[in-house]
Amino acid sequence: MEIIHIFVAVERNDYIKGRGAQQQVANRFSLHSHEMRDDFLNYCAVEGEEANDSKTSFIETFPKTIVNKVTSPDVGMEFSLNPYQGCEHGCVYCYARNSHEYWGYGAGLDFEQKILVKRNAVELLEQKLRSKGWKAAPIVLSGNTDCYQPVEKKLKITRSLLQLFLKYKHPVGIITKNALIQRDLDILQELAKDNLVRVNLSITSLEEKTRRLLEPRTASIKKRLETVEKLHERGVPVNVMMAPIIPGINSHEVLPLVKEVAERGACGVGYTMVRLNGAIGEIFSQWIHKAMPHKAEKVLHQIAECHNGALNDSRFGARMKGDGKIADQVAQQFAIARKKYLSGRERPSLNCALHEQYKDGQLKLF
């Protein structure tokens, strides 16, 4: 079979600011492979052209369904909804990068630069919530890519989805690392009155320098801590996820981070150990040798130590928490931190009892 080489404009040596991935990565499902050649870079230099097109493009899609059944026992959700595929936040470690390959794109720069927008998400959700066969169960925004990534500020798809959850009195969970969620505090507060919402806010580090490298287009740490505080003040339960823990990068921050978010009003904390599954191993390894060359090999070896000598472990029950001494030390730190700073706090279960009465969008009197 003939392999067609497509020359992709990504500079080989210079660090690409504002992006997590530092390269395009071949799609494992594609017949084509990508190769970067020096003669192309030399041509760009001579002609004064940019070798890297760093613009983000938004591609409208119209799926047939929007609510996904989640079968993994590790992620703590039964159903998810993702209004966007791909994520401009650019978190270099993101497990969702691999899913971009199913859309025909790469897990590297494509994941951050080619964002698929589900334009009919609101209509599809309303059909689902009105369906006679649907029984209320928490639906999580978003189990894969962030529902509050930058383009949401303009498109407001997530806000419209939350308005539907409120209209139909249906429970919803939210996973995000963007302070843009503060825009929707009015809806979240109304949902919280009936115990219909819970927020999981991701805060990976308290160090802004670390955040800028790991998560280049996310909200600042200051804004995220402020978000925890504001959600708590409005009565919206907020759990903080320190995800992922990366040995040698943020593993030393467990106690101070838990203390900080507890003081801001978080009702709980959770964590996952980093695992570099699929194409992410290559993406992360190339990134860390550029971003943190002095500690790259040490970090990679410590990650492997948490997964029986590999950068990834796909076993259910073990893949999220890891094995070995480093993983055990992290688990012990979290146990101490929860006992010291979050004792007595609970995350309430979401209310699934109201939706049936509001199946047609208003309270049924009889």
TrEMBL record:
One of its GO terms (molecular function) is iron-sulfur cluster binding. The keyword ATP-binding does not apply. Residues 73-310 form the Radical SAM core domain. CDD domains: Radical_SAM. It holds the Pfam family Radical_SAM. InterPro entries: Elp3/MiaA/NifB-like_rSAM (IPR006638), MJ0683-like (IPR040086), rSAM (IPR007197), rSAM_sf (IPR058240). This is Radical SAM protein.
